[in-house]
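<instruction>
Derive structure tokens from the sequence
<data>
Labelled lines for chain and fold:
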Amino acid sequence: MKASFLVFQDMPIRKKIQFINVIIILPSIVFLTITLYQMTLHQAEERALRSSEQKIGHITNTVNTLFNDIENFSKLSMINKTYQSVLMETTAENNELQQLDDIQSMYASLNSLVESNPYIDSVVIQSTDGSKIYYSDNMSNVTDSSVNVYPKEQLIAAKGTAVWIETFESSFLVNDQRKNLLAIGRRIININNGLLMGYIYINIDERKLSNIYSSDDLRSNIMIVNAEGRILTANDPEIVSQSTYDLFGRMIVDGNGSTIFNNGKMNILVSSKVMDKNGWRAVYAVPTKELMKDQWKITLFILGFGLAGLLLALILSIIFSKWITNPIMQLSRAMTAVGDGKLHTRTIVVSNDEVGRLAYKFNEMVSRIQDLMHTINHEEKQKRKLELRLSYSQIKPHFLYNTLEMIRSMALMKQAPDIGKVVKSLGDFYRMSLNRGQELIPVSQERKHLESYLYIQTIRYHRMHYRIDFDNRIEGCWIPNMLLQPLVENAVYHGLRDKLEGALCEITGGIEEMNGMKVLCFTVKDNGNGMSEDKLERIWKHEPSHHDLSSFGISNIQERVRLRYGQPFGITILSKPGEGVEVQLRIPLVFEKTELEERM
């Protein structure tokens, strides 16, 4: 938890705002999406319940009408004269021919009754004692035992009213096949004396009856059940004669209306309505997922709505967080740049809010710092100028005294033209060293300065030689005065003066490329004793020994170069004991004096 808090704490402000927005918006979108889904699901269930009630009501009305029509057919059969005549017990010989005609008429009437209604499958008439059985032509294998499926006792107890016989499998054949049949039965009474003469059974094909409420949806069940829940007929022939308990895990025997219940596996919508006959009821049962199979479109729409809302919220969060934090980010970048030394950096002030006022004060503060830095740099440069001018005005006494002593000695020994040349070189050296107080000289003048100095030194040390080789292209370049002489002096006094023979000082100058830019490079090289790594380290640490002041001249030149030009310009020293010293000095290539003065 603590680690997560630290991660959040270290996040950029923009990401924090976006993260908080997501935390706030996501639950709202999820809650709204779930609420909409539940509302649409509830409405879909309500519509399904109303639709199922309308459907089962329509089926009930249709079946009731059919049953009433068939009952009316059975009523007409009770008073049919042909049926009455055939069933009367008469043995008169002169009536045999009449009875034969009546029997033929009876068969014709039974066949006509079957043809009169498509749902009447077959018709059977049986005498009271069962000795006489008459049936429609589409029946076969009709015997006294095969018609025992009809409950005669119920017909007698009904006293002339119709008795509906629940579904049974016929033991006789109809159209050469056995069928599941429902039947309506009535007793036939002699209209003259009211005595029982026989029974009529009108059979209904269960499959034809199921066509009334057949459904294209194989998952739904439409059925007619009795009061005990036994299924008499259904659109699915596999469930006929089963119990609704076996099918749904409960009995569906009471009440009208619709409900949704769970049978342990799924939710099932059940609508039932009581019919007019024998307490039978029509039942419509379907898994709710079948009714809701189009609900996935609404669900996808709601999910799409939720995702679109979340995406829109995220996009707006990113846009507004960026809009809010942009000034802060700009201020942060400006502060980083100023921290890296880029004091010219300023941030844009776009508003007058807290961030805008902070940015304004930051710009004001940086301007003040920049002014102070300019003031300090100017004062430091002025101080360095004064120090340099003071050092220019100070001539080393020992050099002056030694040179004058040499002139005196030469004058005592002999008069020679070399004396005048030495004196002239000495004058040129001091004139160029002082340079009338000017700090900048061209390379060509620095070359003359070095030639004057080295000529005097070669006169003093006869075994020493020098060579100056400058690229003609750099003769007009401007450099600070007295830049190379201290380096040459170090080479003479610390590397060459004690060398017995072959002492050589080489000064070269040219143009080279450094970090993609052209720079001026001078090299002062001697073949003296060289320096150890320890001595080089002391020079760069500005720790000269009491007897070694060479590092002072080198460090002075390094400071002058760095103060004027900055890094990476300056001195590089390459040396090994016994192999001489090579000092490399790199400064910018400047052909205009005004350009160099601007750096000061």
Notes: The CA atoms of residues 97 and 103 lie 10 Å apart.
